[in-house]
Amino acid sequence: MIAFKFPERFKELRLEMQLNQTEAAKLFGVTQSTVAKWERGDLVPPTKLFMRIAIEFKTSMDYLAGLID
Question: What is the 3-state secondary structure (H, E, C) of the chain?
């Protein structure tokens, strides 16, 4: 079974871009609390936002989700 790795991958990529949670929230039009929930695995962004995150972080949706390494 493939583990859903979005929380870890999002945080890893956010840190690589040297963004804090507040800056990432502003970039994606959400609150800092929402970003924290993404990173804890309490919330998953809707598909369109998931796609935008992949584009902004210059990666694929498959990588973000943990389908590929």
Answer: CCCCCHHHHHHHHHHHCCCCHHHHHHHHCCCHHHHHHHHHCCCCCCHHHHHHHHHHCCCCHHHHHCCCC
How many structural domains does the chain have? 1
Domain at 18, CATH number:
1.10.260.40
pLDDT tens digits for range 10-53: 999 999 999 999 999 999 999 999 999 999 999 999 999 999 99
Looking at residue 2, what is its pLDDT? 61
